[in-house]
Amino acid sequence: MNSIKAIIFDFGGVLLQWDPHKLYHRYFDQPGQIDQFLSEINFTSWNAEQDRGRPFAESIAELSDRFPQYTHLIRAYYDHFEDTIVGPITGTVEILYQLKQAGYPLYGLSNWSAETYPRIRPQYDFFNLFDKIILSGEVKLIKPDPAIFNLALQTINRTASECLLIDDSEANNNSAKKLGFATIHFKSPEQLGIELHELNLL
Question: Residue-wise over 57-66: b if at least 16 C-beta within 10 A, else e?
Fold first, then answer.
């Protein structure tokens, strides 16, 4: 009998394609200009704080004080967040439905702002397949912090050895693996399907 009793999915990069470039194409002529802007404002670190639970109003004000010339661009990320979602990763969504049909409890564990997630969820029915969704922005913890994985285990009442994490971040997978999770480093739906078959989960 397989020891995996629960399967935990990351969202961005696994079930949904998220790309801020898609939003900022309306403001810049060249992709390289978008990269330069995102790098200059240290977008990755800034956005992680919203994923950690910082209110957008506070974060927009703080970053705009430092980069007043970019205030409209900084605000646009929140105002037009829907435009950062490219769409579902259909192959993974199909696998999600197969796992649900096979009877596995499914959980979401995502680094995502509690303010923007509710704007996206109604657009995709696959979110309804999850027995529980844990958002970093709601619990004020962020992957790869081991604390969020421990909180997830408490929330779903499982041990780490009973859980499989599917995440596109190597750092997140490594952190979970140290706690005893089984992990799959997601790279494509095809690769995910192969590894799930090897684990006798599909």
Answer: eebbeebbee
Look at the block and give the residue holding tokens 């997830």.
152
pLDDT, tens digit (0-9, with 9 covering 90-100), for 114-148? 999 999 999 999 999 999 999 999 999 999 999 99
Side chain identity at residue 4, one-letter code: I
SS3 letters across 23-61: HHCCCCCCHHHHHHHHHHCCHHHHHHHHHCCCCHHHHHH
Residue 9 · residue 96 · CB < 8 Å: yes
pTM of the model: 0.94
Using CA atoms of 78, 48, 63, 86 in order, give the dihedral in degrees to the nearest 10: -30
Alpha helices in 67-169, H assignment, sequence order: 71-79, 90-101, 117-120, 136-139, 146-156
Which residue in the block uniquely carries the two structure tokens 């009793």? 5
Of residues 126, 162, 128, 155, the one with CA closest to residue 139: 155
